[in-house]
Amino acid sequence: MSEPAGPVLAAGCVLWRRSPDGGGLEICLVHRPRYDDWSYPKGKLKHGESALEGALREVLEETGFECAPGARLPTSRYEVNGRPKEVAYWEAEATHGAFVPNDEVDRLLWLPPSVARNRLTQLRDRNQLDAFLTVPRCT
Question: Any residues with CB less than 8 A from the CB of 89 and at least 6 apart, and which?
Fold first, then answer.
């Protein structure tokens, strides 16, 4: 009998920017048509890839933005199809780029944190936003 497989490992970022109109911080949420959900950019790690490398790759692939990673945020743990999944998160400031809709992500929104919190499809994703809001930032 074989050993049970370990958890599915994934990573992502709470991607943020300063509002172009000077109104504070905005959080990036992506819409994935496959799941019809709003979430942070994230995805499964490739073989041999570190969690941070995977998080930055997924942000670029799903949003078109490069970013500067910052503080580590809480890891999300849940089950998918009867298998445990662990998603490591960082907060990351968008540095430059532009969104182009693709097969994985068809829409992207930049929202104030309170609006983003209510738009998240999975309530468990609020943990990362709550932790993000406690991270000190230079103003």
Answer: 11, 12, 13, 14, 40, 42, 55, 72, 73, 74, 75, 76, 128
Q: Would you tell me how many other CB atoms lie within 10 Å of the CB of residue 32?
A: 19
DSSP H or E run through 52: helix 51-63
3 state DSSP class of 4: coil
Q: Are 104 and 32 in contact (CB under 8 A)?
A: yes
**Fold of the domain built from segment(s) 8-132:** Nucleoside Triphosphate Pyrophosphohydrolase (3.90.79)
Q: Convert the pLDDT of each residue in 43-65 to its tens digit.
A: 999 999 999 999 999 999 999 99
Please state whether beta strands 83-97 and 8-18 pair in parallel, antiparallel, or not at all (unpaired): parallel
- Domains of the chain by residue range: 8-132
Name the pTM for this structure: 0.93
pLDDT band at 115 (very low <50, low <70, confident <90, very high): very high
